[in-house]
Design goal:
There is one protein chain. The chain is α/β, with parallel strands linked by helices. It has one domain: Rossmann fold (3-Layer(aba) Sandwich), CATH 3.40.50. The chain is 43% helix and 10% strand. It has eleven helices and seven strands. The protein has a five-stranded parallel sheet with strand order 1-2-3-7-6, with helices on both faces. A two-stranded antiparallel sheet has the order 4-5. Strand 2, helix 6 and strand 3 form a beta-alpha-beta unit. The longest helix has 26 residues. It is globular. The two termini are 32 Å apart.
């Protein structure tokens, strides 16, 4: 049976500085990923979550040791926050066998079961039924574990969202459904894909407990996640966690964002950046921040070198792990 680590309801100032460092690591990692992608070194499509670091770090820091997550196509932040080493993640993006998914996953299909990451998913909302199933398994085994699904606002209109939440509530499984509501379903504004403005109302159809939080405030996200996890872990049923967050970049790297007001995006970057907000709250000096920035930048640069020196899969490896 998995051991559940006791977590505090709030974080001390020194812990919040560690949180700031972790969010900054994710930011610098994704900026480097964008740079290397534009240089032609990374295959496929890449989606960054710049601006949404507080959600990934706040939720994952609140998890117990045995808890698991399922992510989205925008998975780098969740993966790092869940404990995967930057070297292993970067190697995966380069398609190397040293990658967390041994080169099979790439950016949109990351998984790291050892660290409780059941996988990213290029299918919108694809992790939702998976998490309901994992939570059911924990319940049937009598394990004090919680399964957590990350998904975006666009996923709340698909069938598997409703099916997964309906069964989760019906069976009272220990799951937390984390809606990262950045108001964009790729390039479609929320007002054009949902008839309601408060997506927390989606949970009411199933009689599910719902909580809301400002997704740019990492401390608030952590506290709310702790409450949601405690509710689910205690056998009271699943929780719908509505995280109101901001996507500062486009849907994918290279997205021209012709659908978005440039002035609004610029204003959000200036006023709603979760890293800037936490740094200001903690009164971190320029010198201390620069030192922290240099430290995480060095880690990211080392991850690129690790990946470039990694092992390319053999052609015949493409035929392994094929079940259908």
């Amino acid at each position: 049976m998995a051991k559940v680590e006791e977590k505090k309801a709030s974080l001390r100032k020194d812990e919040l500085k560690d949180v700031l460092r972790e969010m900054l690591l994710i930011r610098r990692f994704e900026e480097k990923v964008e740079e290397r992608f534009r240089a032609g070194e990374l295959p496929g499509f890449l989606h960054v979550a710049i601006g949404q670091e507080a959600c990934a770090v706040g939720v994952c820091r609140a998890l117990g040791d045995g808890d698991v997550i399922a992510s989205t196509h925008r998975a780098h932040g969740h993966t790092l926050a869940k404990g995967t080493h930057p070297n292993e993640l970067m190697a995966e993006l380069y398609g190397k066998t040293e990658g967390c998914s041994h080169g099979y996953g790439g950016s949109m299909h990351l998984y790291d079961v050892q660290h409780g990451n059941l996988g990213a998913n290029a299918v919108v909302g694809g992790g939702l039924p998976q998490i309901t199933g994992a939570a059911l398994a924990f319940q049937l085994r009598g394990e004090p574990r919680v399964a957590v699904a990350f998904f975006g606002d666009g996923a709340t209109s698909i069938g598997t969202f409703h099916e997964a939440l309906n069964l989760a509530q019906l069976w009272k499984v220990p799951a937390v459904f984390v809606l990262e509501d950045n108001k964009w379903a790729e390039s479609t504004p929320e007002s054009q894909h949902s008839p309601i403005r408060d997506l927390s109302d989606r949970a009411k159809a199933f009689g599910m407990k719902s909580v809301k939080v400002d997704g740019q405030d990492v401390e608030a996200v952590y506290k709310t996640a702790r409450q949601a996890l405690e509710h689910a872990r205690s056998g009271k049923g699943p929780v719908f966690m509505h995280v109101d967050c901001v996507r500062l970049h486009g849907h994918y790297i290279g997205d021209p964002q012709v659908y978005r007001n440039k002035d609004e995006a610029r204003e959000l970057a200036e006023t709603r950046d979760p890293i800037t907000l936490l740094r200001t709250k903690l009164e971190v000096s320029d010198e201390e921040f620069e030192e922290m920035d240099a430290e995480v930048t060095e880690i990211v640069e080392a991850s690129v070198e690790f990946a470039k020196n990694g092992t390319d899969p053999a052609p015949e490896d493409a035929l392994k792990n094929v079940y259908a």
